[in-house]
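Summary of Year 1 activities. Much of the first year was spent building the evaluation harness for sequence design. The harness presents a backbone, in tokenized form, and records the residue chosen at every position. We chose the following record to illustrate the format because it has been used consistently in internal testing since the harness was completed.
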């Protein structure tokens, strides 16, 4: 799934802008031919979620139609033409000039359909996409499962703690390729002394046998290579003497270009390795700490939609506090985010949409596993060439049926979901390892969850709310509890530990002496306490605060104004006191 690119051979036409839009709560659109035109259309921005563009659509998650008319340049005649959707949350069906061309499940990964034979050259083309985000038990993430939380249950009824924004969240693009084209490229780098080895595998769309060419710019002298294709597959290796290795402090990118037949594709690459040894994560053989955040793609009005100025600003703010890392909690972020991370030197734990998985029975678990496998495969296909991506996270906080304060049912009965969950999660970890042996694999565990689920991770990720959900208001005791738990996990697994979440909801501007919960002082002290512990524990390989910024959650008695306020920045990106604490700790490390 190569990112569409404009070069001397390939073309792109970005259809982002104002589209026609109409909701279809009765689901009559297909029967009434809405893909040809919308009778009661109103304008909507693409990319963007619909929920914050119109007030009465805030909680609407049903079917809706997007429609755009556009000419296709006549200079594209003779090329293959594809329509590509960057992300549509959750299920989308695509129509071109009245014909259905395909559908896609899963809200955060791109999909494309060839539309060459459907294009009209002397008239506008009609591109229509229907999208719905029904919350159901066997989708990933899931919704509408009976909540054990009782009065704390949320609306809309998600299993996860963020707003289920719906719509076309990333650009819709037309792109071309020559008749025979480069379908996929895989770049794997290794290091020997000061030499970088760049191994490139190229897959063509047809079983071509013959030669292609490679070149790498950015080294002292341009480097060239030959690709010998057999049945459409060619591999080659380029050696880069005295290579400049990609890292968080020097994110140096080389430019790799590939020519095969009539096609050409070029992409930035970084030469780096990632590994774990004892309690450390090694970047290019040297220990590195992942300091940063769990984040969300979330902002006022644009919702989960790609927002480029916000993206640039967020990177600048992360740099300002001295962060070098984040996790794409709880779904794959845009391709543009990953490109920026490569360029800015961020170390990414790249996460699938498998948040809050449950394993309540074999049937639902089997249905969810299928969706998880599809999404994990699509994610790795999309992001495998980004040097910034150092690890795949196959799930966030999978849940056993009984744990901690959510325990229900007869506790003398064995909890079969633990063993069922273990099989499920091991399957995903194994899949990630097979698809990409060059990166680390992990999953993110929740407080009170079974320790056995950590067994097959390269490093341990822990979300822990000591001082918030547990021992709130009692920071001394909470921090002692945290320290004890961390030492216990280290003793058990002897793997590096990244705290992928910790934090406190904080109402910006609320102060207190004493520093009670919800005040800025409390969050600042909680963060300080956690970072101080991390400094004393060599096996802590990273501290990622929950969350970078306040974000839209679902409504419940837990979320004031529908917001999760654990951000160290507000939703509009004003720093809270905790942001300055991060600067104290992290700026001195860089
Ligand atoms: C978690 C979840 C995250 C929530 C957070 C919270 O453990 O992974 O999605 O937003 O807790 O604030 O409760």
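For this record, the design step produced the sequence shown next.
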């Amino acid at each position: 799934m190569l990112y569409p690119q404009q070069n001397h051979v390939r073309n792109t036409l970005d259809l982002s802008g104002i589209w026609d839009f109409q909701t279809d709560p009765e689901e009559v659109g297909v029967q009434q031919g809405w893909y040809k035109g919308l009778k009661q259309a109103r304008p909507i921005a693409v990319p963007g979620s619909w929920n914050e563009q119109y007030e009465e659509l805030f909680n609407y998650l049903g079917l809706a139609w997007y429609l755009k008319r556009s000419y296709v340049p006549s200079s594209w005649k003779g090329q293959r033409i594809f329509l590509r959707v960057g992300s549509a949350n959750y299920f989308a069906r695509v129509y071109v000039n009245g014909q259905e061309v395909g559908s896609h499940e899963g809200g955060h990964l791109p999909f494309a359909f060839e539309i060459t034979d459907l294009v009209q050259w002397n008239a506008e083309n009609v591109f229509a996409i229907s999208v719905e985000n029904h919350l159901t038990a066997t989708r990933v993430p899931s919704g509408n499962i009976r909540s054990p939380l009782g009065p704390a249950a949320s609306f809309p009824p998600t299993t996860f703690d963020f707003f289920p924004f719906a719509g076309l969240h990333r650009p819709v693009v037309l792109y071309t390729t020559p008749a025979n084209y480069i379908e996929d490229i895989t770049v794997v780098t290794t290091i020997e002394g000061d030499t970088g080895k760049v191994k490139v595998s190229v897959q063509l769309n047809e079983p071509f046998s013959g030669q292609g060419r490679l070149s790498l710019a950015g080294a002292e002298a341009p480097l060239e290579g030959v690709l010998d294709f057999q049945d459409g597959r060619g591999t080659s290796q380029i050696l880069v003497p005295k290579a400049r290795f990609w890292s968080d402090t020097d994110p140096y990118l080389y430019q790799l270009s590939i020519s095969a037949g009539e096609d050409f594709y070029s992409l930035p690459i970084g030469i780096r390795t990632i590994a774990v040894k004892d309690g450390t994560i090694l970047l290019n053989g040297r220990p590195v700490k992942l300091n940063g955040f769990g984040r969300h793609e979330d902002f006022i009005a644009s919702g989960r939609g790609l927002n480029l100025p916000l993206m640039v600003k967020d990177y600048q703010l992360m740099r300002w506090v001295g962060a070098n890392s984040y996790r794409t909690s709880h779904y794959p972020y845009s391709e543009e985010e990953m490109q920026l991370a490569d360029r800015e030197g961020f170390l990414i734990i790249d996460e699938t949409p498998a948040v809050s998985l449950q394993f309540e029975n074999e049937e639902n678990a089997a249905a969810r596993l299928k969706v998880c496998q599809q999404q994990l495969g699509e994610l790795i296909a999309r992001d495998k060439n980004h040097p910034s991506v150092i690890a795949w996270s196959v799930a966030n906080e999978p849940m056993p049926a009984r744990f901690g304060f959510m325990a229900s049912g007869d506790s003398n009965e064995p909890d079969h979901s633990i063993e069922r969950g273990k099989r499920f999660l091991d399957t995903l970890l194994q899949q990630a390892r097979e698809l990409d042996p060059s990166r680390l694999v992990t999953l993110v565990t929740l407080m009170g969850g079974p320790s056995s689920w950590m067994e097959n991770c390269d490093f341990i990720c822990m979300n822990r709310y000591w001082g918030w959900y547990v021992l709130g208001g009692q920071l001394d005791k909470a921090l002692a509890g945290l320290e004890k738990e961390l030492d216990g996990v280290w003793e058990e697994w002897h793997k590096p530990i990244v705290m992928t979440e910790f934090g406190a909801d904080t109402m910006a501007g609320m102060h207190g002496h004493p520093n009670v919960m919800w005040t800025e002082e409390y969050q600042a002290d909680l963060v300080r306490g956690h970072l101080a512990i991390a400094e004393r524990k060599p096996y802590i390989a990273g501290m990622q605060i929950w969350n970078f910024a306040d974000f839209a959650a679902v409504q419940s008695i837990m979320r004031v104004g529908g917001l999760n306020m654990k951000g160290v920045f507000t939703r509009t990106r004003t720093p809270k006191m905790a942001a300055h604490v991060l600067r104290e700790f992290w700026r001195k490390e860089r």
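The CA atoms of residues 96 and 127 lie 5 Å apart. Quantitative recovery figures across the full test set are reported in Table 2.
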